[in-house]
């Protein structure tokens, strides 16, 4: 018995080190550096065909993703740098409030938690990527939120 | 009365000088009576001398490199008998699970538990948030962007919905499968508000 303990001790130590690495490494991966988030509030309607020039690169995405909406106008913008776990708020024109939080960065993706108009969601977006949240009505059209995470 | 075999045995002992004086006298008497025994004795002498030459050959006639060859063969057989890494691993695992290495078994068990717990923790938030809510209205998750990302890792706007929850309305995820660079759209639509998801989603 004593011989078995002595012989197996290095392997047991290695196994325990692996265990500790797994236990400690998991939460560490969920943490990450700050996330620079740009939120653009867009009003999409079917009144004419116009895309605000200040929408820049978003314009081509908006036209393709939101047909038959044909007109897009910028209502508001916000750019914040969020540490892991930090959140920000933005009042929307339709009276609701957007709350978004940096839930960490892992494997090249940033986890953004959103709360807006009764929707609670967590979206993982690639570093430097963009995604839209849409569907709530506003003045004959709807509000589109564009979230861009800078690398 | 002595048989032929007894006589031959005595002749052999006589040739080797191993007989007592009385036996030697007896053999010599037989030799005098039977000339054929003399020929047999001569043959036994020649055999004895041949054997003696073989055992007492000069050391210089021995091939000394035989030893080296034998040692080389032993080393080669030892190398061939060395178990592979897989054999050693399976042998060690067998010893562990036969409780010959209880500490190692405990370590392995802890590692497995850690992996399982880690997997549960990483997916815990998803399952808890996605669990059906009593007053939840239509929830239509749609395709997951993450699944598409596995096939199109190059999409610069790759995104996927990890969790969602709505009090009312429905959620649709438009992943724009035809264009991996097109940003994902997360729709939240409530009936009666006048908005609807495009593309018939």
Main attributes?
heterodimer, A: 151 residues, alpha+beta, 2 domains, 4-stranded antiparallel β-sheet, 50% strand, B: 201 residues, mainly alpha, 3 domains, 7 helices, 9% strand
The total number of structural domains of chain B is 3
Number of helices of chain A: 2
Give the total of beta strands of chain B: 3
How many runs of DSSP E, i.e. beta strands of chain A? 9
Cα(first) to Cα(last) distance of chain A is: 56 Å
- Beta content of chain A: over 45%
Q: Helical percent range of chain B?
A: 55-70%
Helix content, binned percent of chain A: 10-25%
Give an overview of the whole structure.
- The complex is a heterodimer of chains A (151) and B (201).
- Chain A is α+β, with helices and mostly antiparallel strands.
- Chain A folds into two domains: 30 residues; 116 residues, no CATH class.
- Chain A is 25% helix and 50% strand.
- Chain A is built from two helices and nine strands.
- Chain A has a five-stranded mixed β-sheet, with helices on one face. Chain A has a four-stranded antiparallel β-sheet with strand order 4-5-6-7, with no helix packed on it.
- With 201 residues, chain B is mainly α.
- Chain B has seven helices and three strands, in the order H-H-H-H-H-H-H-E-E-E.
- Chain B has a two-stranded antiparallel ribbon.
- In chain B, helix 1 packs across helix 3.
- About 16% of the residues of chain B have low confidence.
- Classes of the chains: A alpha+beta (151), B mainly alpha (201).
- Chains A and B meet through helix 1, helix 2, strand 6, strand 7 and strand 8 of A and helix 6, strand 1 and strand 3 of B.
How would the blueprint of this fold be written?
The complex is a heterodimer of chains A (151) and B (201).
Chain A: H1 2-30, E1 35-45, E2 50-51, H2 58-65, E3 71-82, E4 87-91, E5 97-106, E6 109-116, E7 119-126, E8 130-138, E9 141-150
Parallel strand pairs in A: 2-3
Antiparallel strand pairs in A: 1-3, 1-9, 4-5, 5-6, 6-7, 8-9
Chain B: H1 4-15, H2 21-33, H3 35-55, H4 65-81, H5 85-97, H6 102-130, H7 145-151, E1 159-166, E2 170-174, E3 184-189
Helix pairs in contact in B: 1-3, 2-3
């Amino acid at each position: 018995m004593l011989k078995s303990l002595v012989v197996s001790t290095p392997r047991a130590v290695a196994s325990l080190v692996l265990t500790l690495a797994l236990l400690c490494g998991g939460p560490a991966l969920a943490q990450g550096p700050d996330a620079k988030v740009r939120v653009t509030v867009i009003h999409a309607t079917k009144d004419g065909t116009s895309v605000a020039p200040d929408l820049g690169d978003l314009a081509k995405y908006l036209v393709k993703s939101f047909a038959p909406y044909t007109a897009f106008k910028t209502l508001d913008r916000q750019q914040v740098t969020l540490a892991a776990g930090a959140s920000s708020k933005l009042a929307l024109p339709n009276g609701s409030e957007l709350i978004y939080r940096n839930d960490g960065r892992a494997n090249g993706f940033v986890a953004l938690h959103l709360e807006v108009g009764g929707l609670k969601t967590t979206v993982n977006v690639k570093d430097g990527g963009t995604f839209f949240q849409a569907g709530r009505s506003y003045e004959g059209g709807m509000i589109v939120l564009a979230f861009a995470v800078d690398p | 009365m002595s048989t032929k075999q007894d006589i031959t045995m005595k002749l052999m002992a006589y040739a080797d000088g191993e007989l007592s004086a009385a036996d030697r006298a007896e053999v010599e008497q037989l030799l005098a009576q039977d000339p054929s025994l003399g020929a047999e004795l001569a043959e036994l002498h020649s055999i004895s001398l041949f054997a003696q030459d073989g055992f007492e050959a000069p050391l210089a006639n021995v091939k000394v490199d035989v030893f080296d060859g034998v040692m080389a063969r032993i080393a080669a057989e030892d190398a061939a008998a060395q178990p592979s890494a897989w054999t050693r691993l399976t042998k060690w695992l067998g010893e562990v699970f036969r409780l010959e290495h209880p500490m190692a078994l405990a370590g392995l068990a802890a590692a497995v538990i850690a992996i399982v717990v880690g997997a549960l923790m990483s997916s815990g938030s998803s399952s808890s948030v996605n669990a059906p809510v009593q007053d939840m209205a239509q929830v239509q998750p749609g395709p997951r962007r993450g699944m598409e990302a596995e096939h199109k890792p190059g999409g610069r706007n790759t995104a996927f919905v990890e969790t969602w929850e709505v009090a009312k309305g429905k959620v649709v995820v438009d992943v724009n499968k035809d264009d991996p660079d097109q940003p994902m759209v997360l729709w939240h639509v409530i009936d009666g508000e006048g908005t609807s998801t495009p593309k018939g989603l």
